[in-house]
């Protein structure tokens, strides 16, 4: 019998150690589907990385952690909450569970008939995308919050430099 599949969606801007812990926990009992939310967003202070860059961050991190049975799927926004779950379901392999702590997606997936569970938090105050992006803008301290594979991707795409340029653009505007 095939293991049940569970979907975990995040923006992963960037993928951090808290995300990795959630993925590892889910993957202990389920085939893991990782949805890259707001896949169309990039090059802003809130969403500095492209879907492709986030895919690399996640794939390299999960591989290094020894996870084998997973899918990573970019999920562009549809712009209408009433259509979002069916939009997501059309883009991912069939799944039975949805993991989230966000009230709106939880409600939408529950109303669509999916089993919904809370995603475990791991040092939420430390592992927050907002906090890590702030550290990146400051240029230091962010590396200890993300897997080493994410550091490599950020360096490859000159992500910290991008963050500085984006912050400068916001100041100039």
Gross geometry: globular
In CATH, the topology is named Rossmann fold
What CATH first level would be assigned? Answer: Alpha Beta
Could you tell me the radius of gyration in angstroms? 16 Å
Main sheet overview? 5 strands, parallel
Q: Write the element-wise H/E pattern from the N-terminal end onward.
A: EHEHEHEHEHHH
Number of self-contained structural domains? 1
In percent, how helical is the residue content?
40-55%
Give the strand content: 5-15%
- Count of separate DSSP helical elements: 7
Low-confidence stretches: none
Please report the distance between the alpha carbons of the first and last residues.
Answer: 57 Å
Count of distinct strands:
5
Mean pLDDT: 93
Structural class by secondary-structure content: alpha/beta
CATH architecture: 3-Layer(aba) Sandwich
CATH superfamily membership? HUPs
Task: Characterise this structure.
α2 runs antiparallel to α6 and α5 crosses α7. Strands 3-2-1-4-5 form a five-stranded parallel β-sheet, with helices on both faces. The chain has seven helices and five strands. The chain has a single domain, classed as Rossmann fold. The mean pLDDT is 93. The longest helix has 14 residues. With 173 residues, the protein is α/β, with parallel strands linked by helices. The chain is globular and about 45 Å long.
